[in-house]
């Protein structure tokens, strides 16, 4: 079958990069995408569910070729399945249990909150006819923990918005210091402590400087750790807009100006399962990227020709990788190779095609 009209349903955040990229990718192919969304920040309680039910039946009457339950999809996947049957693809994307318990440690594994997350994960993946996840490692996790048949899962990488993240036209910068950029939400997955300790190992090297963008769970502790180690080579910028604004520089502009972009370095279970936004954004911008080696990363990057891999949680290995990238020729080669991989596999257009082809093949069968 040919996909011409798709419904996007749920309580998803249209500003979240996962949703933005897939929506842009589908529309770039000329596919009509109708959005049926309730903003959970604006509509509360029973009114939220009444609105969702109304939208679900309205969506059903338009007879879309396929329905995507946008991320976060966990609480509404059952409703889309009830209304639209097997035409539904659920963008599960992450496990609530893995994120809240195994990664962020918000509550213990035996708590009622952990049990609630596990059950909601289980229900979501077992009502979904087609499950969208970002890596094969993530698919294997859902098979192992929740008993999902992997044949019902499809790998759709995260990618990056190529309208925001693209290479700079400026000449390659060769003057010191080497500008090393981390941007993130300071959750355990990202292993910011490893970055700070690597910065501490390089604090007496005037040829290297670090910039941190963002705030989050471990932000205060990381600032304290940097102060403890007298890391005067770190600049803390706090929150920076994701999109261009008249008053401030946005994240993509900082990425374009950086010499090196850092990925994740944590030692939690989730580190082995995902390739994060910041890696895709770095390679989309044609930048050399350093990140932790993992089964998920090796699905696409089996050597160090397009990015540098280091062991998770190893500050010394990270510091050595940063030192290696003081060589402009090495940075240039890595950046060019990274951009080529992005264009071939992870651009908005490529991900749109992948999702469309998934719809056509799965719904035909």
Task: Outline the fold blueprint.
Layout (H helix, E strand, L loop, with lengths): L4 E6 L6 H12 L3 E6 L7 H17 L4 E4 L7 H8 L3 E4 L4 H8 L8 H16 L2 E4 L2 H11 L6 E3 L22 E6 L8 H10 L6 E6 L5 H10 L5 E5 L12 H7 L2 E3 L14 H8 L4 E4 L2 H4 L9 E3 L4 H10 L3 H19 L1 H17 L1
Parallel strand pairs: 1-2, 1-3, 3-4, 4-5, 5-6, 7-8, 7-10, 8-9, 10-11, 11-12
What would you note in describing this structure?
With 365 residues, the protein is an alpha/beta fold. The protein folds into two domains: 165 residues, Glycogen Phosphorylase B (Rossmann fold), CATH 3.40.50.2000; 169 residues, 3-Layer(aba) Sandwich (Rossmann fold), CATH 3.40.50. The strands form two sheets. Strands 2-1-3-4-5-6 form a six-stranded parallel beta sheet, with helices on both faces. Strand 5, helix 6 and strand 6 form a beta-alpha-beta unit. The termini are close together. The mean pLDDT is 95.
Which keywords apply here?
365 residues, alpha/beta, Rossmann fold, 2 domains, 14 helices
| The CATH fourth-level homologous superfamily of the largest domain | Glycogen Phosphorylase B
The largest sheet, given as strand count, sense and whether it forms a barrel, is:
6 strands, parallel
The first-to-last residue Cα distance is: 10 Å
* Count of strand segments: 12
Write the CATH architecture name of the largest domain. 3-Layer(aba) Sandwich
Kindly identify the CATH topology of the largest domain.
Rossmann fold
Radius of gyration based on Cα positions: 21 Å
Percent in strands: 5-15%
Helix and strand content put the structural class at alpha/beta
Unreliable runs, pLDDT <50, ≥5 residues? Answer: none
Q: Strand order within the widest sheet?
A: 2-1-3-4-5-6
The chain-level mean pLDDT equals 95
The number of distinct helices, counting runs of at least 4 residues, comes to: 14
Q: Which range best describes the helical content: under 10%, 10-25%, 25-40%, 40-55%, 55-70% or over 70%?
A: 40-55%
